[in-house]
Amino acid sequence: MVIDAEQRRQIIFAALGDLFREVGLEGMTMSAIARRAGMSKQTLYGLFQDRDSLFVAFVDQHFAQYEAGPVDEDGGIADRLRELFHFDAPDDAWDLPVALLRLAVVEAANHPQLSRRCIEEGRRNKQARIRHELDRACARGELAIPDTDEAADLLMDMLHLPILEALVDPTHRPPTKAWQRRFEYGLSVFLNGVR
């Protein structure tokens, strides 16, 4: 059976997640990743120039899954914003992206491409989607916001899962219920403040 490049990439990304859970970021060499993916190192290097390129591609794929489609057109602004943030709850797939973000922050000088991608693909794209929803809400008369760009930035800070503890302590995972309460409270404060 012939596997195309995209299928190989998905196999590699899955192997990356499995290997990370076993050996952490430090043990993730290109050789170890290739072995876990069941392919040669040459095949891996045919798809990714180096480990950083592989990590950048993983980050891009991770963020792209949240760009999958438009939010529910018929829902109110609160429901549409909930839909945009639904994926932020910590789960088993949370550890590797946080570890890569930690690497991007701590080693920005050594991994500039990864650092740029975390900022560009993560926060900026999400903020643009939030701004789009706020613009739509203003056009529909749901909200009255003079500067939706500033409002989207503020909303990101209010609703985003606090990440500092997770960056400092790799074992930290915020309780989902506490995160949900914080999210709903922040959303309520925001929406009541801009109506």
Mind explaining what this structure looks like?
By secondary structure, this protein is mainly α. It has two domains: 5-48, Arc Repressor Mutant, subunit A (Orthogonal Bundle); 75-194, Tetracycline Repressor, domain 2. The chain contains ten helices and no strands. The chain has helices at residues 5-23, 30-37, 41-47, 51-64, 77-85, 95-106, 112-139, 148-159, 164-168, 176-194. α2 (30-37) crosses α3 (41-47), α4 (51-64) runs parallel beside α7 (112-139) and α6 (95-106) crosses α7 (112-139). The chain is elongated. 20% of the residues are buried. The model has no long low-confidence stretch (mean pLDDT 84).
How are the SSEs placed, and which strands pair?
Layout: H1 5-23, H2 30-37, H3 41-47, H4 51-64, H5 77-85, H6 95-106, H7 112-139, H8 148-159, H9 164-168, H10 176-194
Distance between the termini: 58 Å
Let me know the largest β-sheet.
Answer: none
Beta strands, count: 0
Low-pLDDT residue spans? none
Question: What is the fold named in CATH at topology level of the largest domain?
Answer: Tetracycline Repressor, domain 2
CATH level-two architecture of the largest domain: Orthogonal Bundle
Rg (CA only): 19 Å
Mean pLDDT rating = 84
Q: Please, how many domains?
A: 2
As a percent range, the share of helical residues equals 55-70%
What is the global morphology? elongated
**Text of the CATH class of the largest domain:** Mainly Alpha
Q: CATH homologous superfamily of the largest domain, by name?
A: Tetracycline Repressor, domain 2
Helix-strand string: HHHHHHHHHH
Question: What is the number of helical segments per DSSP (H or I, 4+ residues)?
Answer: 10
Percent of sequence in beta strands: under 5%
Overall SS class: mainly alpha
